[in-house]
Amino acid sequence: MDPCPFVRLTVGNLALKIPVASKPARSVVHPSSSPCFCKIKFKNFPTQTAVVQCIPPGSNQTSEAIIVQALAASFHLNKSDIEKFAGKSIFVGKLYLKISIYTGRRGTTCGLNSGRLLGKVSVALDLAGTESRAVVFQNGWIDIGKDPKNSNAQFHLTVKAEPDPRFVFQFDGEPECSPQVFQIQGNIRQPVFTCKFSFRTTGDRTQRSRSLQVENGSSRGWLSAFGSERERPGKERKGWSVTVHDLSGSAVAAASMVTPFVASPGSDRVSRSNPGSWLILRPGDSTWKPWGRLEAWRERGSADGLGYRFELIPDSAAAGIVLAESTLSCSKGGKFTVDLASNATNNGIGRPSNSTSPACSPRGSGDYGYGLWPYCMYRGFVMSASVEGESSKCSKPTVEVSVQHVNCTEDAAAFVALSAAIDLSMDACKLFSQKLRKELCPPQDLLS
Question: Using one digit for the tens of pLDDT, what is the confidence trace for 315-337?
Answer without folding.
Answer: 765 678 899 999 999 999 999 99
